[in-house]
Write a structure and sequence with these properties.
Elements: H1 3-19, E1 28-34, E2 43-50, E3 55-60, H2 69-75, H3 88-99, E4 103-106, H4 109-119, E5 129-132, H5 133-142, H6 150-157, H7 167-188
Helix pairs in contact: 1-3, 5-6, 5-7, 6-7
Length: about 190
């Protein structure tokens, strides 16, 4: 599949999802894989699902920066794997239409929202309400502010995560962990 076909497919999936009024109030979940952790790194994979685990977006992304070798060891995505995929800027307006005004669950929301800004064209803004599932997990599962990896939150909540560091697998795990945490929170209060 060529870059243009990927862009058209992503746009069509988002249009179809947004055209269904039943989807208007559903919470979304997002995850990215990146070129690294720094201030110039970009998304090289993005997945967005809804609370029913409906996949809306699941794509790799070409990047204008090199992939940090340490990041590549984790997600196993090379720049050569991205050649036929769109750049984030090719789909950013569609992603914006999907996310704007929504509550979006993200495991480590500060990081992924920063990566979205760094991947987008200059001046692009996203107006969604990020909900950090990691912070909720730290509060309910460990009762401290120590970093809690998604894989560990999955173990503590009984959620299966078969393919960690794959954007879609991580987005699904985030949604499932959040569902367990919401249930726990209801029982606590």
């Amino acid at each position: 599949m060529q870059r243009r076909s990927h862009i058209d497919q992503i746009r069509q999936q988002i249009n179809e999802y947004l055209a269904n009024p039943a989807n208007a109030s559903k919470m979304l979940y997002l995850d990215t894989e990146t070129t690294g952790l720094g201030d110039t790194d970009q998304a090289i994979s993005i997945a967005i699902i809804d609370e029913d685990l409906t996949v809306i977006v699941d794509t790799r992304l070409m990047t204008t920066v090199d992939i940090n070798p340490e990041a590549q060891k984790i997600h196993k995505i090379s720049k050569g794997d991205l050649l036929e995929y769109p750049y984030f800027v090719d789909i950013e307006h569609d992603i914006k239409r999907l996310l704007d005004g929504r509550q979006v669950g993200i495991y480590n929301a500060d990081f992924d929202t920063r990566i979205l800004r760094q991947s987008a064209s200059y001046g692009m803004t996203f107006n969604f309400k990020p909900f950090c599932v990691m912070k909720e997990a730290m509060m309910l599962l460990t009762k401290n502010d120590r970093w809690l990896k998604l894989v560990d939150a999955c173990k503590l909540t009984g959620v299966t995560l078969d393919n960690a560091h794959d954007a879609l697998a991580d987005a699904i795990a985030t949604a499932k962990v959040h569902a367990v945490l919401k249930e726990m929170d209801e029982h606590i209060f």
